[in-house]
């Protein structure tokens, strides 16, 4: 018997997910013996609910945006026995759901979930948090904190690009020290992004060679901001070897030590609750997930 708990954020996607709830319930009830829905009321509820029900279920479904998924993952990854995780995407970017091939329409994604196709996936871990998509400092945090809810509501994920363009010229470099498996760095930088998933703010631009099952983190370090650097980065086919183009460096590693001066705020899957220094590592095949069509 498969027991399912759905952690459901009724406010995700400005209430769009809520409108599909009845249909989602119907699909799940038709395919699983036991399905219980738990609606969240506020930040923190998703994690509390996971801790409460995890020992009694086989599958936990995070139905919401990246915030809900992040809370569920952080509670789940701390458990010894981790139920299988599914995502019904209901937010703006839904980054990891894209990386595992889920449809962005919540009802279509629910049909993928009841196909019960499971795969192990890697998880990123920092000192205090787990992440599925990315860990970042510098420009990426400034962009995210400049994306207010009005921009997000009006432009969705395009709001992020709008703010990137506006923020680029104003970014202050910081001193960055990196210690990776086969690579060290000690110089000025404007952004460091460490990816586990392949999507950031809904696009696959940063890590086109990323793979959520390769047991590796993808690291992109930008030394200076200019439209040319971003353009050449997006055009270049990134390989598994360290790529050093003018303005940026790309490589893969299993773990990474990061020190920044001045101390930098960390954006971990959209949450900005800690700062450098940080140690980051990949936990290969740490979660089993219900997936769609993976590349
Ligand atoms: N009932 C609720 N009312 C208000 N906020 C809630 C409620 N339930 C959960 N939250 C909080 O809302 C925040 C945002 O949720 P989530 O990321 O799932 O949706 P979203 O903002 O629409 O998506 P995205 O982050 O992709 O734009 C989360 O931090 C979550 O904890």
From TrEMBL:
Q: Which SUPFAM superfamilies match?
A: NAD kinase/diacylglycerol kinase-like
A Gene Ontology cellular-component term: plasma membrane
Q: Does the keyword Transferase apply?
A: yes
Q: Which cofactor does it need?
A: Mg(2+)
Domain of life (superkingdom): Bacteria
The record's comment on protein family reads: Belongs to the diacylglycerol/lipid kinase family.
Please report the name of this protein according to its UniProt entry: Diacylglycerol kinase family lipid kinase
């Amino acid at each position: 018997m498969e027991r399912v708990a759905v952690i459901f954020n009724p406010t995700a996607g400005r209430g769009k997910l809520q409108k599909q709830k009845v249909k989602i319930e119907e699909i799940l009830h038709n395919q699983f013996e036991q399905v219980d829905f738990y609606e969240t009321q506020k930040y923190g509820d998703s994690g509390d609910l996971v801790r409460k029900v995890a020992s009694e279920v086989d599958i936990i479904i995070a139905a919401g945006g990246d915030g809900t998924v992040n809370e569920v993952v952080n509670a789940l990854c701390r458990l010894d026995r981790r139920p299988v995780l599914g995502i019904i995407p209901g937010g703006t970017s839904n980054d990891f759901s894209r990386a595992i091939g889920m449809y962005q329409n919540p009802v279509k994604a629910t049909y993928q979930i009841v196909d019960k196709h499971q795969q192990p996936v890697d998880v990123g871990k920092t000192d205090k948090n787990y992440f599925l998509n990315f860990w970042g400092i510098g420009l990426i945090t400034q962009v995210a904190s400049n994306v207010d809810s009005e921009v997000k509501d009006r432009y969705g994920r395009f709001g992020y690009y709008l703010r990137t363009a506006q923020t680029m010229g104003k970014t202050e470099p910081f001193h960055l020290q990196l210690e990776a498996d086969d690579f060290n760095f000690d110089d000025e930088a404007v952004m460091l992004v460490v990816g586990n998933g392949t999507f950031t703010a809904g696009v696959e631009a940063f890590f086109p060679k990323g793979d959520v099952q390769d047991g590796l983190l993808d690291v992109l370090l930008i030394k200076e901001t200019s439209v040319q650097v971003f353009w050449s980065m997006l055009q270049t086919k990134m390989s598994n070897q360290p790529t050093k183009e003018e303005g940026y460096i790309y490589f893969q590693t299993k773990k990474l030590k990061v020190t920044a001066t001045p101390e930098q705020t960390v954006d971990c899957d959209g949450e900005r609750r800690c700062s450098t220094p940080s140690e980051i590592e990949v936990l290969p095949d740490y979660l089993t997930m219900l997936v769609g069509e993976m590349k």
